[in-house]
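Ticket #4471: structure output looks truncated?

Reporter: J.K.
Steps to reproduce: submitted the chain below (262 residues) through the standard prediction queue, then opened the result file.
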Amino acid sequence: MIDVETLRQSARQRAAARPRSPFDGVIRDEHVGVVATRSYTPHERMTNAIVYFSHGGYGVFGDLDLQDAYCRRLATVLHRRVVAVDYRLAPENSFFDAVDDLESCVRVQAGTTGVILCGDSAGGAVSVAAGERIGATVRALMLTNPNLDLTLQSFDRQAPQGPDWELLHRAFALWLRPLPLQEAPEFHRPEKSPPPIFLAVGSEDSLVPEARMLATICASRGWDCELNIVDGRGHGFMSDPDSADLVLRRAGAFIRRHPAVP
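Returned output as attached by the reporter:
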């Protein structure tokens, strides 16, 4: 069993202990329907397009505070409004409810300008799944440390700095109900063309194999996917300011190369 409340309390304590990084813009807590969101609007904004961010947390913990620093950097570097989505968690809700929450936010707010979906760790899976549902409005995916193979068959248990295997296995079994893990989505094996994908993973992370698989399949079919393997880094490297800034600068360059991305 998983002590979900202890995990959530620990995550809240970690978030509260982190210093708030400065942000040149406006941060506002809002709701889209019943879904809580937090928007980060930089004063120097290049476009009216929105980046939707989905946090990590094994599908069972995390909130709008968990990766606040990530969102501040994301909005600052990309010069775009970022909306963090406080999607529903397991065991009270399922992965598919989380995807519903992100999808509903995008459909209500996006308009016709197109959006970028950004997800970290478990939030990467939420972003990819929502992108498949939403379709052409999603102009790019930006995925860091993403869980892509939700069956966990690609997970490298020998990697030195991956997510906790036992926790991941138990959490995903709850998150993906009613599906058994062996029938879970395999987002590292896309069957149809995705939007352009920026993909970053630490070289020491257990999730490297599934990231490589996604990049390999995209390359073989002529689909646009840029894989960045961050040397010497493990899972959760986006909490390190230097690593985060490096990856976000690369993501910004990737987005600027694509005229269809708003």
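Triage note (M.O.): checked the attachment and the full token line is present. The two ends are 44 Å apart (CA to CA).
Status: closed, working as intended.
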